[in-house]
Amino acid sequence: MTSYKDYTIATLGSHSALQILKGAKDEGFRTIAVCEKGRSEPYTSYKVADEIIEIDKFSDFFTIEEELKKRNAILIPHGSFVSYIGSEKVKDISMMHYGTRGILQWESDRMKSKEWLVDSGLNVPKIFDTPEEIDRPAIVKFHGAKGGMGYFVANTPDEFYDRIREYPEEKDYVIQEYIVGVPVYTHYFYSPINDELEIMSFDKRYESNADSIGRISAKDQLDANIRTSYTIVGNMPIVVRESMLPDFFAMGRRVVEKSRGLEGVGPAGLFGPFCLEAIVDPNLKLFVFEISARIVAGTNPYVDGSPYTWLRYDVPMSTGRRVARELKEAVEQDRLKEVLG
Ligand code: ATP
User: Fold this and answer.
1) Per-residue pLDDT tens digits for 99-113
2) The pTM is what?
3) C-alpha of residue 194 to centroid of ligand 1, in Å
4) Which residue among 111, 250, 254, 275 sits deepest, i.e. has the most Cβ atoms within 10 Å of its Cβ?
5) Atom of ligand 1 nearest to the CA of 146
6) What is the pLDDT of residues 8-37, one digit of tens each?
7) Which residues line ligand 1 (CB under 6 A)?
8) What secondary structure, in 3-state letters, does the chain show?
């Protein structure tokens, strides 16, 4: 019988690695941070990594995979992992890695993820198939845009064609109804080990310059010809109205249930941390515009646990630590295979 002490938790030094590694150490695992040369200081300074392995670029990850295997490491993929390695290449990982096989291809493809959300009975913003159909505010999102950079809002077809000229190289985009409301990102954790869905926390994003234009008057905004963009800078905690919690639980559960039949996804479906990104309108109607099927950086304010995890656990339980605890329980019950991709 193996012990969890025989395993090491490894992740790329970016995104949510600090809490993943800290949480793994708190649960008693050894840890490795794989860092880009010259960018390892956070991981040494905060003492979350027992070992640092440096590579020139994250995209060189596969050159050190054998080394990680020798250390019996379990890799935890996160958002930066997906964007640097590419969701397609995630399939090629041959070392032990946490999470549902095949699910990252669903979350990274906007049309596929929309289909999954709609089939789960979730309310999603309307998609305009052509610019001519724009009859209300619409947000134009480029595929593979990093952290909302370069998105723009258009109210009419003319406005769309006017703005799109600034991006001559961009051919791959989606035109989505712009929902006027507040963003709420729900952080879930589904455990197949004890068949439970948890809500770990909620966040909203701190986006430049969407969160800064309100600091100047409308006249100054017009004079300066400021255009809204959503470049993410950080994340802020939120606690939602308690009466909304049953709806958030129900949405998460439906997405987990629907994931079980998705093409290329194992029968276990989605498990571990995931996030539904929604806008809540003034009638408290929820519009889910994206799903992330892995840990999100919005959980980072909760290294020390959230108000919700404090209700349930008697230790500070970050999402990173929850992952480590799941792996520990899986090893102890001889079910590790069930949570590896
Ligand atoms: P991610 O890092 O999650 O992949 P992204 O670059 O795909 O981010 P989105 O999360 O799709 O970007 O959107 C960026 C921001 O734009 C959101 O945080 C939200 O503020 C705003 N936004 C996105 N879609 C809508 C919508 N349909 N209505 C209103 N605001 C929206």
Assistant:
1) 998 888 888 888 899
2) 0.94
3) 33
4) 275
5) 6
6) 999 999 999 999 999 999 999 999 999 999
7) 125, 139, 141, 145, 147-148, 151, 176-179, 183, 205, 207, 230, 277, 279, 289-290
8) CCCHHHCEEEEECCCCHHHHHHHHHHCCCEEEEEEECCCCHHHHHCCCCCEEEEECCHHHHHHHHHHHHHCCEEECCEHHHHHHHCCCHHHHCCCCEECCCCHHHHHHCHHHHHHHHHHCCCCCCCEECCHHHCCCCEEEEECCCCCCCCCEEECCHHHHHHHHCCCCCCCCEEEEECCCCEEEEEEEEEECCCCEEEEEEEEEEEEEECCCHHHCCHHHHHHCCCCCCEEEEEEEEECCCHHHHHHHHHHHHHHHHHHCCCCCCCCCCCCEEEEEEEEECCCCCEEEEEEECCECHHHHHHCCCCHHHHHHCCCCCCHHHHHHHHHHHHHHCCCHHHHEC
